[in-house]
Amino acid sequence: MQSLLVRKEPRDAGDAPVTVRLPWLGRPLDQVFSTEVESQEGRNATLTASTATFDTMSRYKEKPWEYLTSEEYLEKYGERPVWADYRRNHKGGIPPQKTRKTCIRGGKVCGNPCPICRDQKLGLHHQNVKLLEQFISPYTGEILHPTRTGVCMKQQKKLTEVIGKARDFGTWGMTGYRCETLTIDPSLLRPVQH
Fold it and tell me: How large is the C-alpha radius of gyration of the chain?
């Protein structure tokens, strides 16, 4: 069994350093931990520091469309769609015909999660039009197939519902997807020679 070693430096020259073994948690730690007994002011400062990162997550959870304009998003994805650089590992030379049912099973994220499941700040919401546009074909206005985007079936179903909701609420503009008929001037065509 693996364990995590935490080393506490001595306060005075006479104290010996203390090493504490913690069982390996199998996931990254989300909170700030300290082995020292702190005063009330120090504890409040530590709690404020740990809730500051939580407030950032909750802000994007309440308003996910703000994440797409943030510097963090532009650094991570640039101008490309979130699914552009996604590649799922699979066994053999032929990729699977369907994407997986879900990326999160029993509260644990599987290996190579889909583009929506791997970034928790990407929230599917009917007002998050910038994100929804990435999953719609610019030529036909139809939702892209999950094998092209790599989205799991659970998120694809949610994506379809959210896009329908955006169209119902009017946050999704349907302009630019009409197919116009092509008219050709017959005088410009060459006559067929027999």
Answer: 26
Closest to 24 (Cα-Cα) out of 53, 2, 40, 46: 2
What was the pLDDT predicted at 53?
A: 44
Structure tokens at 149: 């985007």
Token pair for residue 123? 């929230």
Q: Which residues of the chain have pLDDT under 70?
A: 1-58, 173-182
The predicted pLDDT at position 86 comes to: 82
List, in sequence order, the alpha helices (H) in the chain.
40-62, 71-77, 115-118, 129-133, 146-149, 153-169
pTM above 0.70, yes or no: no
Cα distance between residue 161 and residue 167, in whole Å:
10
